[in-house]
Design a protein that fits this description.
- The protein is an all-alpha fold and 284 residues long.
- Helix 2 packs antiparallel against helix 3, helix 2 packs antiparallel against helix 10 and helix 7 packs antiparallel against helix 10.
Length: 284
C-alpha cells in the first residue's frame, strides 16, 4: 500500500476511534502518524545529504583539476619572466654598447623583450561553486581556502596588463616595419608548451634561433632601433617592471607561491608515478 493509502487508512481509524471515544487507540494512532512524518523527514534529509555529498566529491575533483592548470599557469609565467628578463638585459647591453652581439641577435632580443604571457585561467568550477552557492559542498576546507586565495589574486592580471600595454612594446611595434616583426615572431617567438606540462616550461623564449631576414633588412631594423631614443629609455623601464613582476610572484606573495608549489609538486610526482594528478594533491 502506498503512503497516501496508509494515511487515509489511519485517518479513518482515528475518526472511528473518536466516534467510539477510544482515547488510548487515538493516542497510539497519533504517535504512529508523528513517527511516520518524522521518519519521512529523516529519510528525505538523508537522501539530500547523500546527493550533496556526491556533488561535493565531483566538485572537489573538478576543482583540483582546475587548480593544477592554475598552478601550471603560475609556474610557466615565472619561467617566462626569466626569459623576458634575459632578453631585456641582452637587448639593453647591445643597444648601450656594453656587450658585443650580432645585429641579428640584438634584434631578436629586442623583440623578445616586448613579449608577455597572459595564460588562460581555469576558474570554471570555482565560479560555478560561488555563483550557485554550492561552495559549502566541498568538504576539504583547506582546498576551498587555497582556491579562494589563488582565484582572488589580481597579480596575474596586473602582469598581463603591464605586458600588453608597456611603453616599450608600443614603441617597438611603432618603430619596426610589420614584415620585420612578423619574421622574428615566426622564427623566434614563443615556443609552444602543452598546458599542464610542468617539465617543459623552461626556455619558452630563451632558445637558439635565427630569422630569415637578409643582412640588409637586419641592418635597417637595428638602425631604426638605435635611432629612436625612446627605445632604450622604455626598455630600461620594461626591464625593471619585469624584475618587479618576478619578485612579486616568487617572494612578495609567499602564500600563493607556496600553494602553487605544493600543487605543482603533487602533479609532477603523480605524472612520474603514472597516477592521476588530482589523486596526490594535498593542500597545506
Amino acid at each position: 500500500m502506498n503512503k497516501k493509502g496508509d494515511l487515509k487508512l489511519i485517518l479513518r481509524r482515528v475518526i472511528q476511534h473518536f466516534r467510539n471515544q477510544e482515547w488510548t487507540a487515538i493516542g497510539i494512532d497519533f504517535v504512529i502518524v508523528v513517527f511516520g512524518v518524522f521518519m519521512g523527514i529523516q529519510v528525505s534529509n538523508w537522501n539530500q545529504a547523500q546527493t550533496d555529498k556526491h556533488s561535493g566529491e565531483k566538485f572537489t575533483e573538478r576543482l583540483k583539476e582546475d587548480l593544477v592548470v592554475e598552478a601550471w599557469n603560475y609556474a610557466a609565467l615565472i619561467e617566462y619572466l626569466v626569459d623576458v628578463q634575459s632578453s631585456t638585459d641582452k637587448a639593453l647591453a647591445g643597444l648601450e654598447g656594453t656587450s658585443d652581439i650580432s645585429d641579428e641577435q640584438l634584434l631578436i632580443a629586442a623583440y623578445r623583450a616586448t613579449q608577455y604571457n597572459a595564460g588562460v585561467s581555469q576558474s570554471t568550477t570555482y565560479d560555478e561553486l560561488i555563483s550557485t552557492g554550492k561552495i559549502g559542498f566541498i568538504a576539504d576546507k583547506t582546498l576551498v581556502n587555497t582556491a579562494s586565495l589563488i582565484y582572488g589574486a589580481i597579480i596575474l592580471d596586473q602582469i598581463s596588463d603591464e605586458g600588453v600595454n608597456s611603453a616599450y612594446r608600443v614603441t617597438f611595434r611603432k618603430t619596426l616595419p610589420p614584415r620585420i616583426q612578423d619574421s622574428i615572431s615566426q622564427h623566434c617567438g614563443d615556443r609552444f608548451v602543452q598546458t599542464g606540462d610542468f617539465n617543459d616550461i623552461k626556455n619558452q623564449l630563451n632558445y637558439t634561433c635565427t630569422t630569415d631576414l637578409s643582412l640588409e633588412q637586419i641592418e635597417i631594423a637595428v638602425k631604426l632601433l638605435r635611432g629612436n631614443p625612446a627605445i632604450v629609455e622604455n626598455l630600461r623601464l620594461r626591464a625593471m617592471n619585469v624584475r618587479t613582476h618576478y619578485n612579486n610572484l616568487v617572494f612578495s606573495n609567499q602564500d600563493i607561491f607556496n600553494a602553487i608549489t605544493n600543487i605543482k609538486n603533487a602533479a609532477t610526482a603523480a605524472k612520474s608515478s603514472g597516477a592521476k594528478s588530482t589523486d596526490t594533491i594535498h593542500t597545506k
